[in-house]
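lol forgot to send this yesterday, sorry. struct tokens for the thing we talked abt
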């Protein structure tokens, strides 16, 4: 979901195991460099589910997998877990969420995540959205998502599960927070603390569409955490307060952790609207920090202006796209502690279209680059940046761009996924390669725009990085998209 009790956390049935949908043979796909991508989505475990229709106008896209994320076991880079939405609905969320896991880095197998009623043993929600996954230092995998109702109620809930066997089975299904209207919970992420065994943090924005006083709405950041490996979670509470600025909300909360000091950094977008809520009057990325494992947090520090403009087909602006505008992608250099944030912005096009932009901080997030650096090519719209920094300080970014779109072409939208690497974050040393085939974005499901997902995933894996991405298929209306993953070495630098 996107832009849109204070209740005690409820631990649902302990040890809830989901169905393993079986092994599937790996399928290779290649970009321009001949490097293979492994297919991670197979079949449709929710094909027979009839739950979730909101109205006669609701369209479900069967066989679609969108909005993937991933995590790699820090002890073994071949142990990978990806998560994604399965069977996207046109008017919000999906039939359910699915995990895909591998123990050899290539052959992926699926398991269902119990975040909706479509999943075996799943939570009592009509749809699910916003999958996220993170692996702790002991190999415990934490997955999170959002359960939502559209017909029988107006609930939105934050849900978590854990896996002790690398994503094959899932347990400890927990509702960390749930609300009815006028509240709506959105865009959760989950981060396993690499310095504190058994500790993980779930963060999100909680929109109040009818707050007391003159505000039209309020959207603070919320947090719940576990100290026992996901068996129990703390009562959800606000940790980024937006009430002092009328008609403000946060969105896109993601935590990264300094492995040396244990400091937590939570990044998000802060958006303020006009009194009639029709105009954005300010938008900027910000960060708050915690030095006591999430108990207390600093005041927000501005990272960069959010200059993203609407995502559209540049040859036919009436065709809306939907990618990662307003959502920051942060990372931290595990050796130096340098912080980086990648995001979509229009600083380099005079507001005409979005590029991939990058800022950094070398003093623990207190100050940030005065001006962003452009990472994607000049003159080319680019979308959905993801970022990771390896142990040698090489910054890696992935993103979609439209460099293959020819003037006048309004029937297809040729798109490809790129990987850029910057040793020590230096743009003068930037190198780039295409890691996916060219595909037609306009074949993707339509959900507020042609939808590949509000985000994609990138993480460190051994001596390089591993990506997960959505790719659209042509001529297959019952299978419009699939998810793929691949690992790539990063340059060795001194």
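and heres what i got for the seq, position by position
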């Amino acid at each position: 979901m996107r832009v849109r009790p204070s209740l005690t956390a409820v631990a649902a049935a302990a040890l809830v195991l989901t169905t393993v949908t079986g092994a599937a043979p790996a399928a290779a796909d290649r970009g321009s460099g001949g490097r293979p991508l492994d297919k991670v989505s197979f079949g449709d475990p929710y094909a027979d589910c009839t739950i979730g229709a909101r109205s006669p106008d609701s369209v479900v896209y069967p066989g679609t997998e969108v909005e993937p994320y991933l995590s790699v076991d820090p002890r073994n880079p071949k142990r990978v877990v990806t998560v994604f939405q399965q069977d996207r609905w046109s008017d919000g969320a999906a039939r359910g969420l699915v995990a895909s896991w591998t123990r050899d880095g290539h052959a992926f197998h699926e398991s269902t995540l119990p975040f909706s009623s479509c999943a075996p043993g799943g939570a009592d929600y009509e749809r699910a959205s916003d999958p996220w996954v993170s692996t702790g230092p002991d190999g415990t995998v934490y997955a999170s998502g959002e359960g939502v109702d559209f017909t029988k109620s107006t609930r939105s809930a934050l849900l978590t599960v854990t896996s002790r066997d690398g994503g094959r089975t899932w347990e400890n299904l927990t509702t960390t927070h749930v609300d009815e209207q006028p509240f709506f919970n959105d865009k959760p992420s989950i981060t396993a603390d690499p310095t504190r065994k058994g500790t993980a943090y779930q963060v999100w924005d909680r929109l109040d569409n009818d707050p007391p006083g003159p505000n039209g709405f309020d959207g603070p950041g919320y947090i719940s955490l576990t100290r026992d490996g996901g068996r129990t979670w703390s009562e959800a509470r606000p940790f980024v307060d937006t009430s002092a600025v009328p008609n403000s909300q946060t969105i896109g909360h993601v935590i990264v952790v300094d492995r040396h000091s244990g400091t937590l950094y939570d990044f998000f977008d802060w958006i303020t609207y006009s009194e009639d809520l029709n105009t954005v009057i300010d938008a900027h990325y910000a960060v708050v920090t915690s030095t006591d494992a999430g108990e207390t947090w600093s005041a927000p520090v501005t990272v960069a202006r959010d200059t993203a403009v609407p995502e559209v087909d540049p040859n036919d602006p009436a065709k809306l796209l939907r990618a990662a505008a307003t959502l920051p992608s942060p990372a931290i250099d595990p050796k130096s502690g340098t912080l980086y944030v990648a995001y979509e912005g229009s600083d380099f096009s005079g507001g005409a279209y979005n590029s991939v932009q990058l800022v950094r901080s070398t003093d623990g997030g207190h100050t940030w680059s005065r001006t962003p650096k452009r990472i994607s090519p000049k003159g080319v719209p680019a979308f959905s940046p993801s970022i990771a920094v390896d142990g040698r300080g090489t910054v890696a970014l992935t993103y979609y761009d439209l460099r293959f779109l020819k003037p006048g072409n309004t029937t297809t939208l040729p798109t490809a996924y790129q990987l850029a690497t910057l040793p020590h974050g230096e743009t003068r040393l930037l190198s780039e390669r295409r890691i996916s085939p060219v595909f037609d974005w306009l074949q993707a499901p339509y959900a507020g725009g042609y939808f590949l997902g509000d985000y994609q995933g990138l993480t460190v894996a051994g001596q390089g990085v591993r990506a997960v991405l959505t790719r659209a298929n042509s001529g297959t209306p019952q299978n419009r998209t699939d998810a793929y993953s691949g690992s790539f070495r990063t340059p060795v630098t001194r």
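DSSP finds no helices and 36 strands in the chain. anyway ping me if u want another try
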